[in-house]
Each structure stands twice: as C-alpha cells, then as structure tokens.
TrEMBL record, chains A, B, C, D:
Lineage: Eukaryota, Metazoa, Chordata, Craniata, Vertebrata
Pathway: Amino-acid biosynthesis; L-methionine biosynthesis via de novo pathway; L-methionine from L-homocysteine (BhmT route): step 1/1
Cofactor: Zn(2+)
Native species: Sander lucioperca
InterPro entries, per the entry: BHMT, BHMT-like, HCY_dom, HCY_dom_sf
The protein's name: Betaine-homocysteine methyltransferase
Amino acid sequence: MVCIYVNYQILKCNKRVCISVLLARFDFTQGILERLDAGEIVIGDGGFVFALEKRGYVKAGPWTPEAAAEYPEAVRQLHREFLRAGSNVMQTFTFYASDDKLENRGHTQRFTGQQINEAACDLAREVANEGDALVAGGVSQTPSYLSCKSENDVKAIFKKQIDVFVKKNVDFLIAEYFEHVEEAEWAVQVLKTTGKPVAATLCIGPEGDLNKVSPGDCAVRLVKAGAQIVGVNCHFDPETCVKTVKMMKAGVEKAGLKAHYMTQPLAFHTPDCNCQGFIDLPEFPFSLEPRILTRWDMQKYAREAYNAGIHYIGGCCGFEPYHTRALAEELAPERGFLPAGSEKHGNWGSGLEMHTKPWVRARARRDYWEKLKPASGRPFCPSMAMPDGWGVTKGHADLMQQKEATSQEQLKALFNKETARC
Amino acid sequence: MVCIYVNYQILKCNKRVCISVLLARFDFTQGILERLDAGEIVIGDGGFVFALEKRGYVKAGPWTPEAAAEYPEAVRQLHREFLRAGSNVMQTFTFYASDDKLENRGHTQRFTGQQINEAACDLAREVANEGDALVAGGVSQTPSYLSCKSENDVKAIFKKQIDVFVKKNVDFLIAEYFEHVEEAEWAVQVLKTTGKPVAATLCIGPEGDLNKVSPGDCAVRLVKAGAQIVGVNCHFDPETCVKTVKMMKAGVEKAGLKAHYMTQPLAFHTPDCNCQGFIDLPEFPFSLEPRILTRWDMQKYAREAYNAGIHYIGGCCGFEPYHTRALAEELAPERGFLPAGSEKHGNWGSGLEMHTKPWVRARARRDYWEKLKPASGRPFCPSMAMPDGWGVTKGHADLMQQKEATSQEQLKALFNKETARC
Amino acid sequence: MVCIYVNYQILKCNKRVCISVLLARFDFTQGILERLDAGEIVIGDGGFVFALEKRGYVKAGPWTPEAAAEYPEAVRQLHREFLRAGSNVMQTFTFYASDDKLENRGHTQRFTGQQINEAACDLAREVANEGDALVAGGVSQTPSYLSCKSENDVKAIFKKQIDVFVKKNVDFLIAEYFEHVEEAEWAVQVLKTTGKPVAATLCIGPEGDLNKVSPGDCAVRLVKAGAQIVGVNCHFDPETCVKTVKMMKAGVEKAGLKAHYMTQPLAFHTPDCNCQGFIDLPEFPFSLEPRILTRWDMQKYAREAYNAGIHYIGGCCGFEPYHTRALAEELAPERGFLPAGSEKHGNWGSGLEMHTKPWVRARARRDYWEKLKPASGRPFCPSMAMPDGWGVTKGHADLMQQKEATSQEQLKALFNKETARC
Amino acid sequence: MVCIYVNYQILKCNKRVCISVLLARFDFTQGILERLDAGEIVIGDGGFVFALEKRGYVKAGPWTPEAAAEYPEAVRQLHREFLRAGSNVMQTFTFYASDDKLENRGHTQRFTGQQINEAACDLAREVANEGDALVAGGVSQTPSYLSCKSENDVKAIFKKQIDVFVKKNVDFLIAEYFEHVEEAEWAVQVLKTTGKPVAATLCIGPEGDLNKVSPGDCAVRLVKAGAQIVGVNCHFDPETCVKTVKMMKAGVEKAGLKAHYMTQPLAFHTPDCNCQGFIDLPEFPFSLEPRILTRWDMQKYAREAYNAGIHYIGGCCGFEPYHTRALAEELAPERGFLPAGSEKHGNWGSGLEMHTKPWVRARARRDYWEKLKPASGRPFCPSMAMPDGWGVTKGHADLMQQKEATSQEQLKALFNKETARC
C-alpha cells in the first residue's frame, strides 16, 4: 500500500517559539512490527462501544457490535474520525463478537457472528485505505471462559473469528480485554496460527489479573505464548495503565525476553478502583461523566506513556476523537507531524486567540490549561467512590452465562444483594 | 410531507409494570406552531459546534460552521443521530455563519457564507425527510453588534442568511444565542419579514441580559417583536434555564400576551455561573468534562421543563445524542412513543440486565441511578469555580472585532490581565 | 475602672515591612457606647456552648449553661482564653438560662436559673477585671415564645434574668439569638428598663427572620425599640452575616435612624444554608468539623466586617480562642496593638520560621496561607449539603415545648419523617 | 493509690435496647503493665501542643511546652478535661522539652528545661490523683539527632529529662514521636535505666521510618531495646496508624517476641500523606480544620484499634477532649463503664432528644450519624492535597538546627524553593 500524506502545520512548543513544519510523507505503509522496531510511535484508536453507545448504536449491557452490520455509516464515520485524529490503527469493531456473547441473556441478533465480523473488517479496511493506518482484527474475553468451558471450547470460539480475519486479510491481530491471563494465552495461541503479528492486552491493574498473577508474570506468559506486543487496555485510567505496563516491561526484561508495549486506557479518572477496574465503580456505566479526561489530561498521558517506553499508545472506553488527537498532538515533536484533525485545533488552546471575548482569548496558552484544576459543578457529589467489590470471580454461580434473559427472580436477588451492601 | 412511523417498544414505568406500546403513526407532518398549539411536546436537537469540535470538524475559538460545506458526511451523521435520538427539529448548522463572523480575527474560509448556509440547509432537509422532523433556519448574535455597528448594518447581516433560508424553504426560523435583547429584537424583526414562524432564544440567566433587562421584560419585548416561541439557549445548565424561562413566562402572562416556550440549555452543570454564563467559567471551553450531565440529569431536566409549561425542549453545547434520547425517553409516557434510538437503550438502565457481571445487573433499575451521586475521580479538584467576571460588555475596546489575527502584543496584554486577577 | 496595659509587638504588614509597636495604654475603661462612638473597634468573644461542649461541660441538645455553677473553673478558663485572645467583652454564660428552657423535655437541673445566672455574672466580672473588657449580660430566645405564650409571659422570663444582671451590675446588655424580630423587640423593651446600653442580634440571614421580615425592617424595629447596637449572631457563616448586617445598616440609614452594628457569626462555612441557618444542615451539630474556619478565614471576615462599617466584631458557635485572636490580629494596624495571646503567634504564620523542617519554614508568609485552598482529606464526602427544610415554625405542634422527655413514640414519628425525606 | 469511682449510666446499644449500668469501682490503681496484662483497655490522652495552640498558650513553629511553667492553670485545665473524657494516662507536657529544642532558631525561654519538666510533672500528678489515671513522663525526638550529633550527645539530652521524671516519680515512661527508629532505640535504652515500664512510639506510617525501615522491623528493634509497649503516634490519621501498628504486631509476632500495642494518631484525615506524614501536607499546621475528625470517626477508630488487638488507645495532635470521650464511649460495653464526661453527652447523639427543633430531635440516633457523609461547606477547595515531598532527611544542610533565628536570606531561599515546586 502506498500512502502519500501531506501536512503543513505550525507547531507551538512550550517555549512559545513557532516552528513551521512542512511534511510531505511518501510512505510505503509498513507493518506494525516494522514500525515499532524502527522506533516509531503508533497511535491507537479509541473504544467503539462507549462512543457508539452515546451516539445511539450500541446497547449498554450486552455491549455487542452488531452495528457494524446494522448501521455501517455510523461505524464508518467513527473510524474516519479516529483516523483524522491521528490513529494509525483501525481496529475491527468486533469486540464481544463471539457467538457465545452475541446470544447471551436474552440478547438475540438479526445478524450472524460471521456477518458482523465480516462487515467490521470491510469498514476498517475501507477507512484505513483513506490514510496511514493498518487494520487490526480483535478478539476479546468470552462468556464461555467465565462459565468454565474447556480450553478447546474457548479456543474454538476464537477460531471462528480468526477465520474471518484471515479471509479479510487484516494486517495484524489483537487479543484484548482479558481479565485472566490464562484465557489470553489461549487466545494468543490461536491467533499465532495465522502467522500474523499478535498483540495481547489484559484489562488489569498493578494488582494483576483476577487470579492475582502479577503484571510482570502475565506479560512473560503472553510473550512466551507468542505475543510480540503486550500491554493493558480498558478498566483503568491512563495513570494506572502506564504504571501497570511499566511493571509488565520490568517483568519481561527481568526474564530476558523482548517485546513491544502498548496501552489503551479508559478516558475516565479511576483513582478509586480496586482490581476489577471501573466495572466495580458505582458510576459504571451510566454516570461516569464527571470522570471524563480533558484533552490536557490526555497529553499528559501520552507523554508519560512515551517516557515509559510504551510506543503503541491508544485508548479504550470513553475516548472521543479529540482525545486521540491530543495524543498525536503531544507527540508531534517526536513524530514530526500533526494529525489531519489538528487543522481544527490549535496547540494548547491557541485557537482561542480567535475568540470574540477577550477573557477567553486570555486562555490561549499552555500555562493556563496545564495548571487548571477543573471544577465539577457538582457540590453535592463526592470526589471518590467505594467500588462494589462483590468478590465474584470465574466459576461463581452468578457468573454462569445463560441464553435466556435474566429473570425477575434473578434480578430481585441481585437488587437485594446490592442494597444490603450500602 | 407524509411521514409513516412505526415504533414498538416496551415502556417500563417507575412501578416496574411493563407496558407494551405499539405505535403506527401515519402523520401528515405539521408545522411547529400547529404542533405546539395542539399541546405536543417538541424535542429539539443538541448543539453542533461542541459535538463536532470533539469529532474534529469545528475549531474552538472561531466556532464557525464551515464543516457544513467541508465535511458534509460528518454533519449529516450528527443530524441523523439526533433524529434517531428523538429530535423533531433539524436546525441548520448555521451558527455564527454570518460574514462578519466568518472573517474575524484572522479566520479565513475556503467557502463563502452563502455556500455554508446553503449546504447546511440541504443537510438538515435531507435528514429531516428521513423521519418526523422539521427544518429550522438559525441566526445568532453578530460581532457587528458587539462592535457597535448600526441597526441597519446588523439587520443586513441577518438578511443575507434569511435569503438562503427562504430560498431553501426551511419550515421555521430561530433567532438564538443573543446576549442583548435589543439585537434579538432586530433579528426577530428581520425573520418576521419571511412570513415563517419565528422562535427567539436569549443566552441569559435569571439576572437577565447583559444590560440587566430582566427575563420577563426580555420575553415581552421578543413577543412584541413578533416571536411566537420564546426562551433561552446555551450559557447555563438546565436547572438555571428552566428557572429563567419560568420568569419569561410569568412576564409574558403578566403583560397579557401569549407565547410558546422553549429551552435549549447546556449539558454542563453550572451552578457557579454569573450573568455571563459558562463563558466566564475558567474551564470554558477545554476543561468542562467534569461538568457533563448524565442521562439521568437529563431526564430530570425534561420533567422539570415540562412541568414548567415548556413544550419545546432541546439542548445546546455539550449535548450528545444520548442526552437528547434521555429527554425523549423521560417524556415517552406523555408522548406515547419512544425514539428510534431507544432500541439500543433500556429505560433507567434496564439494558444492564444483560450484563455479564452480576453486580452490574444489580444496577438495572431506576432507584439505583436516581439516587447515585456520581464521584468525579478528581480528588485534587474543587467542585465549584470562580467565574472570570471581567465586566467587559458591548462597546468595550477589547470587544471590538477585527479582521486581522489577534497580535502577540494584544495577547500579552490579555495574559497579564488574566494572571493579575488570580 | 483603671486599666494599665502594656504590649510590645512586631507587626508585619503585607509589604513585609517590619513595624515595631510599643504600647503603653493607660486607659480608664470606657463603656461600650463611648467606645463605639469614639470609633473604636470592639472585639467580641466566641460562643460558649459549642466550645464547652467539646471540652465536656455542656450537653448538646439542651445546650444549657449550668456549667457556670457546676464547673466554674472550666468556664473561667474559657473566659480567660478569649480575654487573652483580644476580646473586649466578657459575655455572661447565660445563653438559654431562662427557667422555661432549663426544664424542657426532661432536662432537670441541680441549680436554679437564678444560681446559674449569678454564677455566670461573677465569672465574667472576675475575668473582665483581669484585662480591658466589659461585662455583657445576655438573654436569648425562649421556648415560651415558640410555644405561643403571651407577650407578658415571655417578658416575665426575660425580667427574671435581667434582675440578676442589674444586681450584679453588668456593663451592658445583649438580646441575642432571636429568630423572630417580634420576640427580640419584647426582649429589648425589657432590657431598656434597666437604663443600661442595649445590643440586639437576630440569628437571621439575608432572607430575614422566620416570618420573612427583611433584615432592614428588622433592624429598624430593633432600633425603634431602643437598641443602640444591632446586628446578627449565630446560624450563618461570617460572609453571610456581614452581608446581612449590611442590609440592616442600609435599612436603618434609609429610615433616617442611627445605630452601631455588630456581628457574631459561626466559625463554620455555611454557603448551603436556607433561612433557618445551620440548624437545618444535616451535619448539625455533631459533624460540622469539615466546615470549621481557619484563622485566615477569620482575618478575611474581620477585614470585611470592618470595611462594611461594623465595629463590634465577635463570634458565636465554633469559635475557639485562636479564631478571636485572628480578628484582633487582622485589625491590629487599625487598633494600634495586638492581643496578649499574640505572644504565642506570629503574624501570618511567621512563627513557622522557627520550625525544624525547612519546607514548613517556607510557609512562614502571608502569600502562602492566603492563597491556599485547604483540602478536606475526605474524598468520599460532598462539599455542600441539602438543608432539611421541614418548614416548621412558631406555632407548629412539633415546636410546642414540654417539660417531659421526648417519648419513644414522639421520636419514632420524627425518625420516620426524616427518613421519608431522603 | 486507692481510687473509688462510681458511675451510673444508661448505655444505648445498636439495637436500641437500653442497658443500665451501675458501676461501683473500688480499684487499687494498678500500673500500666498490670492493666494491659490483665486485658484492660487503656485510654490515652490527646496531644497538648495543638490543643493549647488553639487556646493561646503554645506557639506553632517551635511547639515547645513552656506553658507548663508559664500558664499552669491552662495546662491543668486541659489535663482535667482529658481525665473527665476518660483518659487513664496523664502524659507530662514535656514534648520537645529538651534543652537543644528549647533554644533553637532564635527561640529563647524564660524558664529552664528543668523548670518546665518539673512543672509538667507536678501538673500531671495533681490531676491524675483526681481520678483513675497514671502519670507518664515523655521524651521525643531531638534536633541534635537531625543535626547528626553523636549517640552519646543525644542520649545525654534524654538523660536530663529522665532525671526529672525519676525525681518526680512518674508511673511509666514514653519515648514518642520518633521519625528514625535508631533514635528511638537510643531513647528506650536511656529510659530503661530507670527500671520503670517503657512505651515507645514512632511517628511513621506503613512505609516505615525515614530510612525505610519497615514497621515490623522497627517494632522488633524497639522491643529488643526494652520497650514493653510499642506503636505509633502523630503524623497520620487513625486509619493509617491502626494499619501501621498491625504491621508492627505482625513483625513482633513473627520474630517470636511479645509486646503490648498502642496508637496515638492525629485527629485529622490524612489519606493523601506520604511517608513524612501531615508535616508535608500543604495545610500543616494552620489550615487543617477541614480534616478534623468527628466524634463518630473516633468511635470507628476505637473499634478498629480494639479489633486489631491494640489496647492502649489514645490520640495526638488535633484531639480535643470530646474526641477522647468518643473513644471511651465506643469501648464502654467492653470496659463496663462510661467516662465522667458522658454526663454531658448521650450515646450516638441521644442528647438531641432534648433539642427544641423537631428535625434535630430526628437526628438522635446512631443510624443517622453513622451514615452521614459530612459536607465541607467549601466548594472551591479540593478533597485531597499533594504533599510537599522535599525529600530532605537527617543530615541535609537545611535540617541542621541553629540557635540563631532563621535569617531573611535563609527564608528567601526557602520561599523560592517552595514556589518553584508549584
């Protein structure tokens, strides 16, 4: 694939010195490993389920990606926005697109799993070809694992998705959002059969996976299973994710192994999480708004991830295109160019120089935004929450998945349990 | 125009009684006044500049709508999402699309004002025809007025936009986002020449316009100028806006006049605003995230607006499609139907019944979400801010608009002023 | 009475210029009106019931002052601390020392009302004679008024306390803590019969008394009844109290009358109060700690009160001696001397210059403390609360006082009422 | 010493069952070790320097206890209040009463160290004899150690204080407020020469002493040095202190040793501290008010400490007598009696049953206070702070103590350092 990419921007660095950058990039688009091996920074995209939920195309609860087949124009538009924001990876919208998840707890689909996976691949490829991006096929944790199905059963589920990815010739594969390193290893083993590069991310924090396997040990196991890129995604805020990947990196290096590292954190502040991540926060998933990161929080994240040796820097739930653009803008000095979307943005608020009100023009500077501690406008709310912490993990009866809808009796039992806790 | 609209949904009311609603609506789409006269609730859309800024198509600072011509697919998609969320009005994306604004402070355009206004009309009409929605052409306050130009000059600016709206045959007109009732009156006078229904909204709070004209007096003047629908938009949170429109309604009724009422508030909590609204908050416009309303806050707003006798209920900056959907869902019992987008949403979180984790299924109920006081995850931030309050209004030298970019000297003077304040 | 008072201190003003002040004051102690007429600033003391509750000598609930007779050494010590902190008034510890209050709701006393009032006068005089202070006899609102007793009955209660004050020859009288201006007028009328100077304070905010009589009208009525000093005490924070007294002053001046003004606010931040004051806050009285003012908040209060023309500046519930000292220190430049207690305090933290840790020595300056926004260390708590607002006022059955203890049935009814509200 | 102690109280337990307790205790007052060996709970007192600073008798900065000699009536009164609140230990007010501290950084005394130490012993004994309390002589960390003086020099300083304690025949000794376990060991070694029981507390948290010696290792070293009671005091909130002492206990038990355990935490919430404790918080020492614990927080602390096997439960800076009373009230069921001060307090707010306002009577119950999350009334303040963290420890030039006052040049250098950090 040949990509011709021209970009002209004025970069404004910390010292208020203006640097003009004329970029004419005539790249033969390279694979993910070639890029990372060459020391390039790869900007990932953001999470699709939350972004499309807000737009009306994904249902919170099942969180399944049937919109790829049902509402392709909405999915295509979101891909385009992330591309424009600077993403180098179009991840297929195939999160939870395994058959055992698509038909869980009364959820039924108008489309087969295969149709959804295929549609998602086509959309990702279509938009990737419009810019400098690769297509990544993604698989994620399965209800079957939580319900204690066998290794073979779980692997068969991954295999069905992989077959589509191979047929659609994605550029590389990502096994993401695993709470148990064991299931992630199984996924990596299946993905490796394709011969394509494999990335693997767990949704864990510094305390490790739900069996308390440490981040360092998790990473070593994933690398040994064949993953060339390892890291974390979802469940925690950027600060926690960078901290966790640092522990992974230390573990891999101590074991004498090598890998590339990635982070795809939430766009929500979660200093109050326990090991289960934001799922346990009382605000999940419908009252997380006060926790949403600003673009300046994102620039801080990009810098810290980069300083930690993480070169694949993306996002997950809560990311909107402007968050991703902030990552690309922060690292523009290192990368030498700004994303296309920066034509509608100035560095550190410099677009405000054009505002009609003088006191808003006075905010057109880094110093202002970097120091600001934004108010919540919610004086009756606390700043931190107590996570639920039910302590229910794989194998517990309440985690057994079922095809039928949750019954009223089942719900009532859960409501009582929740209320008793308070 | 004939609209056939079929919708089947399960409404779940407070009492957990399930009500099935089968709707087959064969409507001849009626005008805005016929609807309001008949007691219908009209759901407005949300603000486009903030939503498209997050998606990468609008530049914060100038806040101009050239994307209507430049990136029509992005604007069309946002219209579609609001339609799907339940909006009955597709407002043309022509905010700040007057020539004096499009070429302000060094901002130059690849498209003429006329091209932008025409493109915006076409997009709104295209999507409106896909559902049960009207097209409203919108004009807003002008830099010319702030710079003390004459009544004739300001009216000529409105006239240019109106000419496009007439040519494109929009269904009705909105004069919105006026800080001074005088300028709004001028706008209404121009809009009235078209013979189309006219709505007028000020961006004011309970303290009145920037000349301290009270909400009641403002409303009376707008009605006398010919507006059939009056209210407020932008600048304040729903609570403040409903309070202000109540004062308008009381003023109009006291004067023995009649009108319909509308609110299009922010989707940000702003209890700490002064009369200038959220522009004065230190977080404007790049760190407002912690203030974003949840869907449950929106349901509360819809109910309070309706109880106050406001029947045109919409939104402004910060609204995402799910916010609008929440308005339509809250008022579904009164309206008898749910919006199309509710297929991907359950009332009061009932979609969570399908979640894999039992403690999240335990949140599938109104009582849980209604009582929750969401944490910010930001323990180092305050809950309220001190507004800037520079006290600069129409006629002040710093408010004079200029074609040239703000110079470095001008900026430096503003930066010093801002810093001295702290 | 002759007072010889020598004080030598180094005042450190804003500009870091050191001013040595040698004071040898040979004063004939003058009366309260002579002082105020001469333009002197009079520093009041702080509230005794809250301070002694923390020390273990007052019971929250009845809030009665029997400790004056029971534990005189504890009351004497608190008087001494306020004197040392700079108070020019030793108010007799006779709050709620009326017979109808002393025997209310099952509360019985080992001492008669007369014994308590006499002991309180003796203690106040003993300590006042140790320094430059006057003795003020105080009466406060009565359960009888709330229970709709007649004017004669209520006045008779005041008369009993007054008789002691006359016998013990206090220097002036204060009618304080009235929620209804009518009862305060009755009190002033009784106090005036003594021929001593009379001050009168209501526990009201800007909304006026519980019958919605405005602060301005209240003040006019009190002045007309004969009070030479008027103002507010208790129920609200300093900011609110200064605002309220400003309204009183404007009312008195508009009526062509003359008076001196005083404030004795809480030492708690109460931005979230309604007209009933801090009694309605859910934290009253046992969880108010996070609201306690710092000494720097107090200096701000002293300055604002003084700037508003209030020259009798004291405190109420929550005040500890260091709060009062802060008032005296802030106004030392105007008064020309520091209080005795300042020997153990440096202006604006300058005592920290002697701290062993260098980073604490770095805090020995005004700029540091004035800008600091102190954290609560309570991330799970909100910053504002919703007041109770039961809307129960004089005459309501629940406000009828009774000699017998509140019964279990009565309590249960109240508990249910409170819980239903949440 | 013979103590006859009669107390009659109504205990109200969780279940609202009333339990009458008639206590006639005819005790021969026993030593501290006999009590702890017998499984008794010993209630300590609170910190004197903070309490007396608020009352005007201690200067923040030097924090020295000359008031024992200068203002004995104020010190005696505070002892009495703690005794009345339930304290079984009257600790001599000899904190920082070593000669090298009394004459540090320009601080000079009118009294010799010996005079202060003797006066403090006399006051403690006088009040202890009024009730069921022991006298403990206390020594604390020295500027000499921070300035790298020799073991012999430092021990000589402790020896001077000890000589007074022996002469005055205190009941036992406490080495408290040590940041370095090494200095605490030296102190214990000196204290052991007296033959009296020895307690030793460090002002450390879970991260250990300033040389990163873990709590477990610290405790083992103190026990091996001869301390019979070990624990922590000051610097951290109760939650952190209990956690730290648990680690100490685990360390001692793992080493096969035996000890009794004590905690004397702050009465301030400090979840945001680093290893240096509240000294590093920006609010130290003059803006800590929003962090003050409520009485209910104290009851929680008492319960948790007791559950952790800590039987000597006291307090430090920030404690007022009502905080100590709350400890004694919480543990009244275990101890079988209430403190004398409870005559002015009802369990869990039951005194409010006598309040005049019905909605306050509705708060007369445990359930209300235990669930309340108290608001700060400070919407412009954060809930947590960033500690200073200068990383300056023993041996650093800035920590060298000097007899002369801190010079203006020294201050300026510190101010600059502090400002640069922000």
